[in-house]
Amino acid sequence: MLELHINGQTKRVQAEAETPFIYVLRNELGLVGTKQGCSLGQCGACTILVDGKALRACETATETLSGKSIVTIEGLKETFLQDAFIAEQAAQCGYCISGIIMTAAALLRTNPKPGKQEIKTALKDNLCRCGTHNRILKAIEKASQTHSESVRHV
After folding, report:
1. What is the pLDDT of residues 109-142, one digit of tens each?
2. 65 contacts 55 by C-beta, under 8 angstroms
3. Rounded CA separation 72/98 (Å)
4. What is the DSSP letter of 71?
5. Over the stretch 8-49, which tens digit does the pLDDT of each residue have?
6. Which of 26, 37, 51, 80 is deepest in the core (most CB within 10 A)?
7. Which contacts (CB < 8 Å, 24+ apart) does range 44-47 have?
8. CATH assignment of 79-152?
9. Other CB atoms closer than 10 Å to residue 151's CB: what's the count?
10. How far apart are CA 103 and CA 107, in angstroms?
11. Is pTM beyond 0.90 here?
């Protein structure tokens, strides 16, 4: 039995220690917003935040997450990101989007006003086969503007 801190809640799961966390998320916890893509850590669809950093759930053993703060797309507090993706119509099929949003959230936590090249660099390991790359970039730029404005007004 492993105890995990996920989306602000403590969850106990029965899983083999080396089980890739993507299986625990989807099959044991019912958190299906995190997508399973390549299972090799190469596409980014399974990106989650662990202690604020972007991490691939498909290549992370569940036991390594004990005692860490885990956030999935379902628990993301930065809703301005999702709003920006909707406003810019950045999703086509939507399969990659939760991973891209989680990567963008990690970026904006460390760099609230990234330039276009910094966004591209952060997303270099997230794949989108639908070709909405320009809309994705615009959405993250819009989210960074919204985020910095809301921080200024607090």
Report:
1. 999 999 999 999 999 999 888 888 999 999 999 9
2. no
3. 9
4. E
5. 999 999 999 899 999 999 999 999 999 999 999 899 999 999
6. 37
7. 44/96, 44/99, 44/100, 44/103, 44/123, 44/125, 44/126, 44/127, 45/95, 45/96, 45/98, 45/99, 45/126, 45/127, 46/22, 46/99, 47/98, 47/99, 47/100, 47/102, 47/103, 47/126
8. 1.10.150.120
9. 9
10. 6
11. yes
Give me 138's structure tokens. 């615009």
Residue 33 has phi, psi (to 5 degrees) of -65, -30
Q: Where are the beta strands (DSSP E) in 83-132?
A: none
Return d(Cα 138, Cα 108) in angstroms, integer. 14
How many secondary structure helices (H) and strands (E) does the chain include?
5, 5
Q: How far is Cα 100 from Cα 91, in angstroms, rounded to an integer? A: 10
Q: Which CATH number fits domain 2-75: 1.50.10.20, 3.10.20.30, 3.40.50.1000, 3.90.79.10?
A: 3.10.20.30
66: confidence class by pLDDT, cuts 50, 70, 90: very high
Hey, where are the domains in the chain? 2-75, 79-152
